[in-house]
Design a protein that fits this description.
Order of helices and strands of chain A: HEEHEEHEEEHEEHEEEHEHHEEEEEE
CATH topology of chain B: OB fold (Dihydrolipoamide Acetyltransferase, E2P)
Number of helices of chain B: 4
Shape of chain B: globular
Number of domains of chain B: 1
Number of helices of chain A: 8
Strand order of the largest sheet of chain A: 10-11-12-9-3-13
CATH architecture of the largest domain in chain A: 2-Layer Sandwich
CATH superfamily of the largest domain in chain A: Probable tRNA modification gtpase trme, domain 1
Low-confidence stretches of chain A: none
Helix content of chain A: 10-25%
Radius of gyration of chain B: 14 Å
CATH class of chain B: Mainly Beta
Number of strands of chain B: 9
Oligomer: heterodimer
CATH class of the largest domain in chain A: Alpha Beta
Largest sheet of chain B: 6 strands, antiparallel
Strand content of chain B: 25-35%
CATH superfamily of chain B: RNA polymerase II/Efflux pump adaptor protein, barrel-sandwich hybrid domain
Distance between the termini of chain A: 42 Å
Largest sheet of chain A: 6 strands, mixed
Structural class of chain B: alpha+beta
CATH topology of the largest domain in chain A: Gyrase A, domain 2
Helix content of chain B: 10-25%
Strand content of chain A: 25-35%
Chain lengths: 363, 133
């Protein structure tokens, strides 16, 4: 199978990136070291190529109606140039994907997980037949960077004309770069302040080169995962999947009581009232050393109680931390002892509050 | 990449250094580069008897857990406790401060099955050529 390449593939290769397959794409796992790239983003600024993410474009008189039917979060309240995070669920409430919707003057840009792009498109097309809407996969027409870190605004401002200080969290600004239209949004997946930049491949490639030349650290998927993990953002395929509802994943705030009969509404609203919740996402910290990994078993009072979804030695915090699900409607409170089975041995851990870490992000 | 001549190697990327009837063990420069940043090394208990080829150490990188196999059979005489606080020594100095355990050499004939530096380097060359293909 030939792997798909983002417009920045040659840049990654020239920088000596370790390339890996991710959701059918050849992507940089790291350039020098995951830990160094992680640190650069926590303390300064780093830039990620996230062009592999799926970008879908919806326009037409009923674009909003379709999104309102598909998504539990309230798309109708979006201003132009505002973004919204939402899960997308099936009728049973399980999560098909988690995504970001941007309202632009002439339509909506929906940014989805690379691994789910095709399935999302099919799902959305199936439901779009009842609506007067045009739905297009524009993944290849746009490239996407994430410039992240406490110094992201200052670093990016040197290269773009628009006033970034005036852009609030989950808002965007349309501007020109290298004579091309680009969209800058104050969003990210690291727990730090930062921006994502969307634009035509040539313009984004030029911006990437300029950012790297000015000394910004390129960061790969490894650091992207460790940063999102410390900030306790769910990752599809780990904390979220078709067997998991947003309420169970701690995303109850994205499930709205809006009047529209959206897909999954009945189950989700019931769960939000505490009914029918089968499991809860928790955070935990190891009391004994050991790295919890996806799929490892969790035990409460000696009984099998759930499973790990993500875990690592958190680079900024130093501790061995994990996220996982425990069965039942209520999560055990912070401080509750639990055990994690690591390499056939049960090791002591305790429940801790999420998120593990709050960075420079100010919401 | 460095492959010191005085060491013996395995196909699984361990190195072994014979020192007066004992064998010091670690992972190669190639292995540490492939694994990336190492964040934890789970060492065996001193006194444990291991068989050649047995997984007796776990190296945890940011992304994954990997087994380290005993290059020879014998009792674990000593482990590198420094790694508990400084797992990065494996990345920084795989043949020195990054050593992991010292084994008693119970059967010296097992050393003959290990690879020379030249043979190991050839193996790595082939693996890398395949990776690029």
């Amino acid at each position: 199978m030939t792997l798909k390449r983002t417009p920045l593939f040659d840049q990654h290769r020239k920088l000596g990136a370790k390339l890996v397959e991710f959701a059918g794409w050849a992507m940089p796992l790291q350039y020098t070291s995951i830990l160094e790239e992680h640190k650069a983003v926590r303390e300064g600024v780093g830039v990620f190529d996230v062009s592999h993410m799926g970008r879908l474009w919806l326009k037409g008189p009923q674009a909003l109606d379709l999104l309102e039917r598909l998504l539990p979060n309230d798309v109708s309240r979006l201003d132009v140039d505002q973004a919204l995070y939402s899960p997308m669920c099936h009728e049973g409430g399980g999560t098909l994907d988690d995504l970001i919707v941007y309202r632009l003057p002439d339509g909506y840009l929906v940014v989805v997980n690379a691994a789910n792009t095709q399935r999302d498109l099919e799902w959305m097309r199936k439901h779009a037949v009842h609506f007067d809407v045009e739905l297009r996969d524009v993944t290849a027409e746009w490239a996407q960077l994430a410039v992240q870190g406490p110094k992201a605004e200052a670093a990016l401002q040197k290269h773009v004309g628009a006033n970034l200080a005036g852009v609030r969290y989950y808002r965007g600004v349309r501007t020109a770069y290298a004579g091309q239209p680009v969209l800058l949004t104050r969003t990210g997946y690291t727990g730090e302040d930062g921006f994502e930049v969307y634009g035509p491949p040539e313009a984004i490639t030029q911006l990437w080169d300029e950012l790297i030349r000015s000394g910004i650290t390129p960061a790969g998927l490894g650091a992207r995962d460790s940063l999102r993990f410390e900030a306790s953002y769910p990752l599809y395929g780990h904390e979220l999947d078709e067997q998991t509802t947003p309420v169970e994943a701690g995303l109850g705030w994205t499930v709205k009581e809006k009047p529209v009969d959206y897909i999954g509404k009945a189950v989700l609203l019931r769960q939000k009232r505490g009914e029918g919740v089968r499991k809860r996402l928790i955070g935990f910290r190891m009391r004994e050393p050991g790295v919890p990994r996806q799929g490892y078993k969790l035990f409460l009072n000696g009984e099998a109680a759930g499973y790990v979804t993500s875990g690592m030695r958190a680079p900024t915090l130093g501790a061995f931390l994990g996220m996982g699900y425990v069965r039942g409607a209520a999560a055990p409170p912070p401080g509750t002892p639990l055990q994690v089975e690591i390499h056939a041995k049960r090791r002591e851990a305790e429940v801790v509050k999420l998120p593990f870490y709050r960075g420079s992000l100010r919401t | 990449m460095i492959f010191p001549k005085e060491l013996k190697y395995t196909k699984e990327h361990e190195w072994a250094k014979v020192e007066d009837g004992t064998v010091r063990v670690g992972i190669t420069d190639f292995a540490q580069k492939e694994l990336g940043d190492i964040v934890y090394v789970e060492l065996p208990e001193v006194g444990r008897e291991v068989k050649r080829g047995e997984a007796f150490i776990t190296v945890e990188s940011v992304k994954a857990a990997s087994d380290v196999y005993a290059p020879v059979s014998g009792k674990v005489l000593e482990v590198n406790r420094e790694l508990e606080q400084h797992p990065e020594h494996v990345n920084e100095d795989p043949y020195g401060k990054g050593w992991m355990a010292r084994l008693e050499l119970s059967d010296p004939s097992e050393l003959e099955a290990l690879l020379s530096a030249e043979a190991y380097e050839r193996l790595i060359g082939e693996a890398e050529a395949e990776g690029e293909g």
